[in-house]
Specification:
single chain; 17% strand; 405 residues; alpha/beta; three-stranded mixed beta sheet
Length: 405
């Protein structure tokens, strides 16, 4: 596809898509703890009090679907659930003509649970998921846990959030705990809504070896990137991943539990791809961002070939003057993938409102506005807003997502 083809796809109505393709945005809702303090993006971006404005702006952007996080860390308390804020927000969301893709955990757990090392987390999350689907039986689209791999890696491997550990054994334990949350949460959702659409938004990444000595580690990383999907789907893990897990404290019976209880029923493989998603590893064994080498188009093919489920580009953005070019490049890849016949079900610019302090991976509480959203914190449309509108108008936002699976 030429650059002109991409511009035409951005600006010309009538791009032929089926009813299962959706264009979405989202409300950033990360809520990890850093140095014992809760970092809540719903608060920092002021969505908590401005949700009606945000829903109106989302509709003006032309979307009908909105990735929308439910603050598990606030709602689920030892004494029960407090749904007061969620009731009002979800009612306003539906009244605005938006269908939420409900995200039940986004990088944070209730204070009394502490962090992702806690073995009590899956049972607590299962009860929360059950309570949610019973209270809101109309909800159909779900991301049970946002980015399970990143949740575990940033909390227990890279030391940014929550337990703030940098230990492979802790990373593996967090990964298994979070993956178990995915399985039990999905089971509760399916029980209430057999026609549910489950979209596992997960990092879409690839690790490039820089030297011969790093090839084996890069190969392992390129297997691990699929692990949260394969655990959730109940599939047998490849031998290198099994060995890595066993070497870092996992019991074989834990892996058998996933094979017995996981299922790929109703799942869409969500790909979160950014300019930082491709990594490099050198002789020192440290992972670092390497910029775009393969690109989303190539990685989407890899994820679909490996996992055999429909896919969706569930998250991307770029800050500042690079945003327009990044949007065009990602949409170009979507058009190419659809022309290849891949079952790609949607595209998401994340998020609607500029984020706060993501330039430090939420580790520095500076209150710094990150210009990566469709609108500013003052709720003024940014230039990228109009470019995004051209996409939504060309396909009318994919009103009917009934073919998403």
């Amino acid at each position: 596809m030429t650059a002109q083809d991409a511009r035409d796809a951005l600006s010309t109505p009538g791009l032929e898509v089926d009813d299962g393709f959706v264009v979405a945005t989202g409300i950033e809702c990360s809520a990890p703890r850093v140095d014992g303090k809760r970092v809540d993006e719903l608060v920092k971006t002021r969505h908590r009090e401005r949700y009606a404005d945000d829903f109106r702006l989302a509709r003006e952007a032309g979307v009908h679907y909105l990735r929308y996080g439910i603050p598990f860390h606030d709602i689920s308390q030892p004494a029960g659930f407090d749904w007061t804020w969620v009731d009002g927000a979800l009612e306003a969301c539906r009244a605005a003509g938006l269908t939420p893709i409900v995200d039940l955990m986004h990088f944070g757990v209730p204070d009394d649970l502490g962090d992702y090392q806690n073995p009590a987390l899956p049972d607590r999350f299962e009860g929360f998921a059950r309570a949610f689907v019973e209270r809101y039986p109309w909800a159909r689209y779900f991301t049970p846990v946002n980015e399970p791999f990143i949740t575990a890696a940033f909390s227990a491997r890279q030391g940014f959030w929550n337990e703030q550990l940098s230990d492979e054994r802790a990373f593996v334990r967090a990964l298994l705990n979070v993956a178990r949350c995915v399985v039990v949460g999905a089971a509760e959702i399916r029980r209430a809504r057999p026609d549910a659409v489950l979209i596992q938004a997960e990092t879409c990444q690839y690790t490039h070896p820089l030297v011969r000595e790093a090839i084996d580690q890069a190969d392992l990383e390129n297997e691990l990137r699929f692990a949260t999907f394969e655990l959730a789907f109940g599939r047998r893990l490849p031998d290198p991943v099994v060995r890595h897990f066993l070497d870092h404290g996992v019991d074989r019976d834990e892996l058998r539990w996933f094979e017995a209880n996981g299922s790929d029923e109703n799942w869409v493989v969500g790909n979160d791809y950014y300019a930082t998603s491709e990594l490099a590893i050198g002789a020192d064994g440290h992972l670092r961002s390497t910029g775009v080498r393969l690109g989303y188009y190539e990685l989407a093919h890899q994820y679909h070939e490996r996992l055999g489920r429909p896919i969706m580009h569930t998250e991307t953005n770029a800050a500042g003057p690079n945003a327009d070019a990044w949007l065009e490049s990602q949409w170009t890849d979507i058009v190419r993938l659809r022309r290849d016949g891949l079952p790609i079900r949607g595209f998401t610019w994340y998020g609607l409102v500029n984020h706060v302090d993501w330039d430090s991976t939420l580790t520095v509480d500076a209150g710094r506005e990150n210009a990566c959203g469709l609108v500013s914190l003052a709720r003024r449309p940014r230039p990228i807003f109009r470019h995004f509108q051209r996409i939504t108008r060309s396909i009318d936002g994919g009103r009917d997502g009934s073919n998403a699976t």
